[in-house]
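Need a sequence for this fold. Nothing fancy.
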């Protein structure tokens, strides 16, 4: 995979919130901690949630290669979306004396004991893309601007419906449009940011009647999808079609926060007689992560859009953050206000994302080397 190398955008150094705040795991004033020793003697533990998503496979590979290129040893573990497995893997990393942890959590509330053990051993902890909650022992957070991702998803939905033009100005279509809403897993902090960004954008159009959520399901608890599972999203879409649209009315758009969910939603719609493509009556369906199967669907006119979060940049920024900790320094943060994990505001570095529709596949995905033209055509990674 070539899509593996997150280049930083401008940064603001956080003076009042350093990674060592509260005497947490990031303290490097003790020479027995991460700052001591040669790079080749230092092992970094990388805990990833699952290998069922090509996105997380690419992330793990990217972080591992970046750290190894910087001279460190790497212990990369995938937990199969099983919380006890991830807890055990992190426990083992601590027991083995690994000097820093990069964790993409399955459940952001389930690692308090592991993080306390890391703090006791003076092991810095970087939360990778998913904020770890309810612990003072999270030293740094590297992610995208997840609220903005939600805004982008909602904006893309409005553009696909014709309510907005591509430049953000009002479009020609006035509605009303029937839309249904999906959110991610409630135990993933990002899901809440995505949904808030999307709903803050969509709510004025719901209020004025341009958009109609015919099912009435608008609370995140009603529309959440546990573990981001495709089959769960497909089943909910099937149930919505049966319960809400059996009167002959049609769904015009679906807010989906992730490509895997989008494919389940699209399958349910196709099985109900929609499509096969947008030109044939398939609703406008959004997504996220630019997974290759969904990029092909966008290219083929089936899925409307995805949000491209270039995980090569995320991996790069994580490596830079790790190097700062391991050399005894303080990582750069460009956000020290947004990410309160319930115990502390975690200093963060936020990266930017892009809306990808059919016209953006070439410049954003192919020209950048993230996917090749052949991969887009086949829908499979080479």
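Here you go.
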């Amino acid at each position: 995979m070539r899509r593996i190398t997150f280049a930083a955008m401008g940064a603001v150094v956080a003076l009042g919130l350093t990674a060592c705040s509260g005497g947490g795991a990031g303290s490097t004033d003790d020479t027995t901690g991460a700052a001591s020793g040669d790079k080749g003697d230092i092992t970094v533990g990388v805990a990833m949630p699952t290998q069922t998503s090509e996105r997380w496979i690419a992330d793990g590979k990217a972080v591992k290669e970046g750290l190894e290129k910087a001279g460190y040893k790497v212990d990369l573990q995938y937990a199969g979306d099983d919380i006890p497995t991830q807890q055990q893997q992190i426990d083992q990393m601590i027991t083995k004396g690994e000097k820093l942890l990069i964790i993409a959590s399955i459940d952001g509330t389930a690692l308090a004991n592991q993080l306390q053990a890391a703090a006791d051993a003076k092991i810095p902890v970087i939360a990778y893309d998913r904020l770890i909650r309810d612990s003072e022992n999270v030293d740094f957070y590297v992610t995208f601007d997840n609220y903005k991702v939600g805004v982008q998803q909602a904006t893309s939905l409005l553009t696909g419906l014709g309510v907005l033009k591509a430049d953000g100005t009002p479009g020609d279509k006035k509605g009303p449009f029937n839309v249904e809403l999906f959110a991610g897993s409630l135990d993933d902090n990002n899901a809440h940011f995505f949904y808030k960004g999307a709903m803050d954008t969509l709510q004025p159009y719901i209020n004025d009647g341009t958009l109609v959520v015919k099912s009435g399901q608008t609370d995140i608890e009603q529309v959440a999808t546990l573990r981001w599972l495709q089959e769960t999203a497909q089943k909910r879409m099937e149930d919505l079609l049966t319960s809400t649209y059996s009167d002959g009315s049609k769904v015009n758009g679906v807010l989906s926060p992730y490509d895997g969910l989008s494919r389940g939603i699209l399958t349910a719609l196709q099985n109900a007689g929609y499509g096969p493509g947008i030109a044939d009556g398939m609703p406008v369906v959004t997504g996220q992560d630019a997974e290759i199967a969904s990029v092909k669907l966008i290219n083929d006119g089936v899925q409307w859009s995805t949000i491209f979060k270039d995980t090569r940049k995320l991996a790069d920024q994580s490596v830079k953050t790790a190097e700062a900790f391991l050399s005894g320094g303080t990582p750069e943060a460009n956000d020290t206000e947004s990410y309160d994990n319930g115990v502390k505001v975690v200093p963060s570095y936020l990266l930017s994302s892009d809306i990808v529709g059919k016209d953006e596949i070439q410049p954003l995905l192919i020209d950048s080397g993230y996917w090749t033209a052949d991969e887009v055509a086949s829908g499979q990674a080479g």
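For context: Residues 1-34 have pLDDT under 50 and may be disordered.
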